[in-house]
């Protein structure tokens, strides 16, 4: 029987996969952590997002949930 994957397992895997990335942005322009932006983007694309606008819409639509798993402002 296959183990059911929960969203915490997925988040842990995404954190491990991307945690070593260097953030090229200037400190004063950082509104969100790079890892949070990447994870939001991955989740959005997995749910069908195909543009920056649809990633933004996904983030706004799912903000309450995303704040539970990411460090969003």
Written description of the protein model:
This protein has a domain at 32-68. Helices cover 58% and strands 0% of the residues. The protein is built from four helices and no strands. The longest helix is centred in the middle third of the chain and has 13 residues, at 34-46. The mean pLDDT is 87.
Radius of gyration: 13 Å
Distance N terminus to C terminus?
A: 40 Å
Structural class: mainly alpha
Give the total of beta strands: 0
Low-pLDDT runs: none
Pfam families: DDE_Tnp_1_assoc (PF13808)
Domain H repeat-associated protein N-terminal: 16-72
Organism: termite gut metagenome
Protein name: H repeat-associated protein N-terminal domain-containing protein
Concise account of the structure shown:
Pfam families: DDE_Tnp_1_assoc (PF13808). Residues 16-72 form the H repeat-associated protein N-terminal domain. The protein is mainly alpha-helical and 73 residues long.
List keywords for this structure.
mainly alpha, 4 helices, 0% strand, 73 residues
């Amino acid at each position: 029987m296959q183990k059911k994957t929960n969203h915490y397992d997925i988040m842990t895997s995404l954190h491990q996969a991307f945690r070593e990335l260097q953030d090229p942005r200037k400190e004063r322009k950082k509104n969100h952590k790079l890892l949070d932006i990447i994870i939001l983007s991955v989740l959005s694309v997995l749910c069908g997002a195909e543009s920056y606008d649809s990633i933004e819409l996904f983030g706004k639509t799912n903000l309450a949930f995303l704040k539970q798993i990411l460090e969003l402002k």
